[in-house]
Description:
The structure is a single chain. The protein has 167 residues and is of the alpha+beta class. The protein has helices at residues 2-25, 134-137, and strands at 31-34, 37-38, 43-49, 74-76, 80-86, 92-99, 105-112. It contains two helices and seven strands; from the N terminus they run H-E-E-E-E-E-E-E-H. The strands form two sheets. A four-stranded antiparallel β-sheet has the order 1-3-5-4, with no helix packed on it. Strand 4 (74-76) and strand 5 (80-86) form a beta hairpin. The longest helix has 24 residues, at 2-25. The radius of gyration is 33 Å and the shape is flat.
Amino acid sequence: MLKKAMIGALVLGAAQLAVIAPATATTDPSWYLGPSEVGPGEQIYAETRAGAGGCTPKGPVTSPGLAEPITWTIGGNFGKYGGYGRVVKTPGKYVATLTCSDGRKSTRPFTVTGVPPTTTTKPPTSTKPPKPTKSTTTKPKAPQVAVKPAGAPQTGGGAFGPMAWDW
């Protein structure tokens, strides 16, 4: 009876492993991209930790919302990979993609804030020369004369007592 129970437990354990193994291969790796709202041309940070639910990156983080891909320039404990990049200047909602060395791909959304320009401003069409302002018609002031210090520099009165090197 004990032998049958042991064989049953072994078969059950193998069946559980067969079910769990494919599920872990398709899970979304843990990684961070932030802040989630960024001003035009500002900096954004990406990080993953291979030893803590993340993955080993196959390449940089890519997105049409990035001025250039975020390369991994920071390393650390638990297989940490991190890097900074800049976002584009065009406001909108974008998606960044992380590709892992085991083939998994994961995405994170981010927003470049601001209002897109609707029209361009036209330069002035006036042919008259601009009127001189008050600051251009006044005489410049004479430069200030430098005052040379006199005497020995003041180093304090010794209010805190003798120092270790004064003994």
